[in-house]
Write a structure and sequence with these properties.
alpha/beta, EC 4.1.99.1, Aspartate Aminotransferase, domain 2, three-stranded antiparallel β-sheet, 39% helix, binds ligand F0G, Beta-eliminating_lyase, Tryptophanase, Aspartate Aminotransferase, domain 1, lyase, Tryptophanase_CS
Amino acid sequence: PRTQIEPFRIKSVEPIRMTSRAERVQLLEEAKLNVFQLRADDVLIDWLTDSGTGAMSSRQWSAIMLGDESYAGARSFYRLQTVVRTITGMEHFVPTHQGRAAEKVLFTAACKKGELVPNNCHFDTTRANLEYLGVEALDLVIAEGLQPSVAHPFKGNIDLARVEAVLKAEAQRVPFGMITVTNNTGGGQPVSLANIRAYAGLLKQYGKPLIIDICRFAENAMFIKMREPGYEHARITDIVAEMLSYADGCTMSAKKDGMVNIGGFIALRDDRWLDDIRNNLIMMEGFPTYGGLAGRDLEAMAVGLEEGLDEDYLRYRLRTAEYLGEKLDAAGVGFVRPTGGHAVYLDARTVLPHMPVEHYPAWALGNALYLEGGIRGVEVGSVMFGKRLDDGTETFHKMELLRLAFPRRMYTQSHFDYAAEVIAEVKAKAADIRGVRITRQPKFLRHFTAEFAWV
Ligand code: F0G
């Protein structure tokens, strides 16, 4: 097979400021060994997140000029509404400024204190928005979904037996079921159509609606085409239509598969929560025909949603992560298998097997990638999920991962080749990599602002 080329050419470029290793040593010291505290200009390859960081197309930039900035009833709203209705098959469309706003507005309308929402894995903001309302957020991904080295075509699937047990025991507490495609928290892993169909069927038996978190629905659909028997020849739009036919509503962060830098929405099949949603929206986001966005943002999203479903683009998109995975295999670096849609999660223990967890190996690996090659990823390990208790002791996470998440249409194959070289060099010099200790930390979400020193 030939090289999978990027199915676009570059019309507008943004220079990367080159830095030397010596400079990066200094910059990381100034950032207190925390890459979140770096200036983006001091990063060569920024794989912190795929959210809102991608490149828009020339069609999107030209659509921006067509934005109608009317407060109420803007043309851009109707244009986007038509696109969202076509993709989701749902009648009601409510724009929001990003995904977490869609969650907050919907949950405030649809949940009450003491309730419980099952999901494969709740994303951080989804969990936080539910817990803030006193609702329990239950993660029920299949067992394979929590084992990094175990390969499975649909590691994002929800465990139907556990869902059934929850519904049997506590149906009265469940306002609706959720499922996240792809499962970001579990490594960007897809959910099969068979799983969504069966989950929706179970919920229906108990009269419960299904809400899908569709941030990465296009990537999930492409995985279905590539892996689910019977869908090899299906069109992506038909797979998406079937996926959403099982849902009663969805929340979307268009900063992912919507291919925009800002934007989101809620779509709903019927109007059961609509009055409350619109009231919440007006209080929290804006009038229902703009929802916290400018008219030009709505236009860019209308175009981006269609471009995100292009099969050539999706094939290339999934190939980039897989390609990096092959290079990591060759270098003997472990990662969450198979590679996900939007990211590769390095298993730091395979690079730093001797480093004690108290020295935060995944954080140390993140620092090493920055020093060696100016690459920025996100630690998903004991800094993010561990806690310092009041007695000064510490809890640790069960995995030490470093997420490299890829902005859409932004980095070329040579950037990926370079990153693979840097990772292999870091692995070769693993004996020199230093662990860290925390010198200062806030009480919550410590990874964003904590300060560190070398041990
Ligand atoms: N749901 C999922 C599955 C997500 O991955 C995100 C964001 C959200 C909801 C919230 O959307 O950022 O537009 O408010 N994930 C980003 C990430 C931040 O880096 O994985 P948002």
